[in-house]
Protein 1
Amino acid sequence: MSVADTIIEIVAEQAFLKPKDVKPTATLEELGIDSMTLVECIFAIEETFDVQVPFNANDPEASQFDISTIQTIVHAVEGLIAAQKV
Amino acid sequence: MNRVVITGQGTINALGRNVPETLIAMSNGVCGIGPLEFDNVDRLNIQIGGQIKGYAAQDHFNRSEINLYDPFTQFAVIAAQEAITQSGLNFSEEKLADNTGVVLGTAGGGLQTQDQNYRAVYEAGKNRVHPFVVPRLMNSAAASHISMIHGLRGPGFTVASACASSNHAMGQAYHMIRSGMTQVMLTGGSESMLCFGGIKAWEGLRVMSPDGCRPFCGTRNGMVQGEGAAIFVFEEYSHAKARGADILAEVIGFAMTSDAGDIVTPNKRGAASAISRALRDADVSADDVGYINAHGTATTINDRTECAAIREALGVAADKVMVSSTKAMHGHLIGGTGGVELLAVIAALKDGMIAPTINHRAPDPDCDLDVVPNTARQAKVKVAISNAFAFGGLNAVLALKNP
């Protein structure tokens, strides 16, 4: 499964949605994901990909981890995985 | 109803080993937060805290005491001794000892004992633990040991309401004396969560700052933990007066409310209602309040919500009240934090020393109160309140006035 599909699956499970209803352009707000659910999603992403996500709930914008949409999250996680292989 | 005064105070925390050291540090705006030192700290993302540096249990206790006292108990016992000594009370008097109780606040209790013993059985694979693990970890242990050491035979128990535990505990002590149930109460709180498991659990919530505690500051990015204890002697006024005790402050009101909202996100209504009810209980107006020791955790949402709650509760009087969060200096002692913060409230009332909110670099339009940035102030304060707003929406506010 691709990184994108895996992340969609994680987010769908946390948001109580079907993966097909999670579009790459969707924002977390549109998916009904609040700050606590987001923290759970990030935990699941870290566990699944064995990466460390630099995210601070107090300051999401300064976290160097763009959570604007599913697409940006996928991109950021791909970056983390690539950085780990170096 | 009986009047309740404070006749003794004691502490140990990152700013000092006793009250005088702590107050000097607060008046100088000293930051007690620094790199954490304990096993496996390198495996944490958050590596700072308000740790009591250079503390060694054997400097204070013998081997058999250490076997029974988790650090949270050690801190409470040290602080209680200082408070009792200052009060001048003599508990060898049978009647006084029968009418003196202990009610403390803690969130984690003997968390370090749990952490160490889980390591022993799960990580090291040991099949045997020390026989006193249970009496060492139970979160009422500190209250019991203070009662045992000083022979206090009145009511004794421990209150848990996360970050508001100390304020809830001191509120109980206040009510017990006010109602005539007891004459004297040892009260306050203690916490010792600075260990690998303690910080690792908090990291998960993503609300901790990796670089410092900056309450009400535009650059704030989360809370920083501390450790320690502060214990007070609450005493019925006429008893204190009759023996010529030095009265530090009077407790005049207390209120508790619940947000009935979210398990971590605070809510303005619950906080504002606790402040308003505390002032009503104290029979004072918003104009009388000169200083507020804020909960001020330095998370984005707490500080914004708390400032809005203060505005709602105080109205126009919010524009002139001094509000500071001393957590930037001593860290967030979780269940013990209201205890250490009451030291700042008493210092404001008694000495006119308004402890600052240090690390304040840039204003935040959502926190547009007088937060006493960076430098302590001298000011006459008649009434002061201490806020504690815990996870789970449990709010507790104490109101005090100068003696």
Protein 2
Amino acid sequence: MKENILKIEDLVVAFSMYKSGTFKKEKLEVIHSLSLDVDAGEIVAVVGSSGSGKSILASAVLNLLPGNAVTGGKITYKGKEITKERQKELFGKEIAFIPQSVDYLDPLMKVGKQVQGVFGTDERRKELFSKYRLEEDTKNKYPFQLSGGMARRVLITGAVMGKPDLIIADEPTPGLDLEMAKETLDHLRSFADNGAAVLLITHDIDLALNVADRVAVFYAGTIVEVAPKSDFLAGKDALRHPYSKAFIDALPQNGFKPIPGSQPYAGSLPKGCLFLDRCPYKDDACTAEQAEREIRSGKVRCAHAS
Amino acid sequence: MMKKTLNRKIVISIFICLAFFYLIIIFLWGMFMNPAKYGVNYADKLVGPCKEHLFGTDAMGRDMFNRCIKGLSNSLVIGLVASVFSSVVALIFGIASAVLGGVTDKVIKLAVDLCMGLPHLVLLILISCMLGKGSLGITFSVALTHWPSLTRIVRQEVLQLRSSQYVKAAARMGKSPFTIAVTHMLPHVIPAYLIGLVLLFPHAIMHEASITFLGFGLSKEVPAIGVILSESMNYITTGKWWLAVFPGIMLLIVVILFDLIGETLKKLWNPESGNE
Amino acid sequence: MLLEANNITFRYTEKSPLILRDVSINVAEGDRIGIVGPSGYGKSTLAKILAGYEKPTSGTVTLDGAPLPMKSFCPVQMIYQHPELAVNSRWKMAKTLNECWHPDDFFLEKMGIEKEWLKRWPSELSGGELQRFCIARALAPETKFLICDEISTMLDVITQAQVWNILLDTAKERNMGMVIITHNLALAKRVCTKIVKAQEL
């Protein structure tokens, strides 16, 4: 068995917000009992629609949530919980983050200095620049002077500066053309092949299927199914959760047949199974909260899955 | 953590209401005050703070508390007129600059930079002297010098709106520029404008007090914080501390209250920080 | 009706590089032309020019030989990639929906817009729900051509299929012409009658 790097158990994230136009605060739960683990040497892709809260997952792991967030559950890294003290020595060294765009860089600081950060050395930076085909004088440029592809490579360079064991990539490809997207994914693949764990968060299922070992389907604030990539490629019959099946069916290259309805809003979730309102197989068993079950080397939250 | 932040919004709202209430009371009290209350009374010269005279009296036996209230009330009137005038100028200039662009934009931007480049106080004194000092001079000078920063805010807001997709889409749906300005843009500009207006207030009051203090503003007979403070300078070395301290604190409270109201409104209206 | 773009060339300022060079494209009623390809080939710029949002540096866009109307309702309407930017955040949804025409209940049901959503603010709806509003808003009876710029890129695949099925039904029913810009070849193959590669523009 491979070493477990990241383990998320029953993560709950809620925001306390004002109801519009009133003085009442309400607790809006955006992530509900989410569990996921990532082992060394594998890429796990979390796939969900934009705005469904999957970026919050990355923020939760990296402790980047805003002040009005309340969290529950447990996040462990290499078997030990990530505490405030521990996070200081982990983040930027063992745990790295590849953000969505260069907007995450300081626009007024030269790229070389930013990439090197406080822990990196000049030799390591040189080595990485040559590895990612960045000219040596790139280090003297400012973020706005970088082209899309270069910017992406700079972000990756910054992330892997400390030879991380866990890389979290949040939507690393939108805005890139196919070739550059593929290149970025190849980089992720090579990290994993060298023993790192990669958590890839994306809305693009095609992309996820290209590179990931396992795919987690994110729906309405939780992960309803985790399955090996091969199950997704095999088609809907190999999958476990009715949402995953509907998902595969709706792809343009497959049936392009949608099921009715939309993802429930965080404030008005159905009781029990989150997919209840749209599920063709619903019955009494679905009104209870759906526990995670293991079926055929995958995990699923559905009482009827087989 | 939840409990502590639970009622932040209510607390803030109550605070804003109280602050407004306080300011309105000072304003009305001063407006309708019997002039005899802050009149000359040589029997009670330079009395320290006591029951009858909370803030004491000055060299001519005038009750400092009543004079303070009347003075603040006057300051509020001048501040109100000046900020409303300034903000209307800012609104018109800001919108014109963003919508018309070209030469208009350049001229307005130049005027803004010019106004902001000159030391504020010098400009205030110049305009006030030109108009013969007094309440007219001071109101105009404050009004004419406080529009640039708000103009910038309005211009920026309108420019951003103009390039937004829904405004462009509205134009392709055949809506006239006027309809777009009123229906699409105004709802976005108004909050920024109102906050700017509230934040102008403390500036206006401060500047009115300071040029009056320097002797370029309201005349000696008018009860005004600036006059009170400059007179008190003559007595402060002789230990008549109450002449400067109480009026100073009163002015400070009014200015800080306005500033706090503006800043909290800004936070509440801004969706980014509205939930904190 | 025929929407024609003739020899379109575009650059933002005189010094900036050319984004489009001598591009011509014809869209007839009932055509659904897909423009597929990676970013950086001026697909979105072409979309904006076709819908009259940008003026080409040289070349013309004509509708049955006449230039696009600039002051009145334009029969060529466009739908954007980010629906949350295409609606006024300080308007309730009902106002946005009825901005240029008044869809009836039957139409709303067909679009999958629930009545209850009309009372909400844009921030209270998901991207897929907002995109339905943007589509409904653009589908006025006078609309003859629809330009779709990556309209389902930000939606999940189920919503994507829902939205496109609705859109295709309406387009076929009204015999509308469409220009569909996407990076997703599988999607283009599903919805278009003809596919052009962005590199070959």
Protein 3
Amino acid sequence: MWYFEDINVGRRREVGSFTFTADEIKRFARKYDPQRFHLSEEEGRKSLFGGLAASGWHVASVCMKLMVTGAQRLAREAVARGETIAASGPSPGFRDLRWIKPVMAGDTVSYVSEVESKRTSDSRPEWGIVEIRNTGTNQRGEVVFSYLGTGFVPRRNPGSAQK
Amino acid sequence: MRADGVEIAAKCGHNLTFAAAIPDRMTLSFEDFPVGRLGSFGPRHVTREEILEFAGEYDPQPMHLDEEAAKKTMLKGLSGSGWHLCAVMMRMMFDGFLGRAASLGSPGVNELRWVAPLRPGDDVTLDVDVTEARISRSRPETGIVTFKGVARNAAGQVLCEMVSPIIISRRASAG
């Protein structure tokens, strides 16, 4: 969406919010994470979570959903202004993912992205590598989710010395 | 299935034997996860439809949704969302052993690498090792088992590597 050169370390962006309904929690869990505390209110109450809790992978997937759709909306606006946009590349992975507190049925999680570092790629000179800390906070202001994601971003001037 | 997978299956069978008497008794406890190879799980077939469905809902980038657009990307063809592969690996762990374990949830993922793209029609296998198993200091009735999962396609190419701790009850407390 943005070129490597346009991305500043420390840039913070509100990604969006999502309310995890009991139905949504169970629908994701049935397909991908059918542990009992993600499928049933009663089993959730008997667990460490104290109620029906969303799969951590659901919490992470919703973060991705909001990041992608938010970036696409910003890109459409940029195109409407006549700006050139860059297509971001795939991600080689992430680290330090923390499910800090459970996301319970009815919780609304607001996600924020902040650029933590950027560097050029030695093996792929047309790409830069950006590390972004994504954080989810619930409606009570408690941080529930965080990870440090890595992504390839195209360079406007491939091969230049900028770090 | 390999011998170690058979061992896990036997433990699951053991669970079934006692299921009638103690319906919610979990068989696999912290003590069942010593450091070393746990097992190989799968294959799990991933269809094009499933890739499109997951991407449409959670990761609607052209490289996951549109064959023609995907050809022009770094991944050179339609690929599943990396988060979809995570979810598939989670389900494989559940079906393989976690569904029969006294799992209390996971605090996170230390590291995850998407090594090669998940393609439509891939048959994913998952090798799981226990890299660390220790008793929780804050909740001594539980242990923290760190799993390393490596997902591969049918050609043996590594798709994803993940290191993640899971909290599992100790047998004594399962009483």
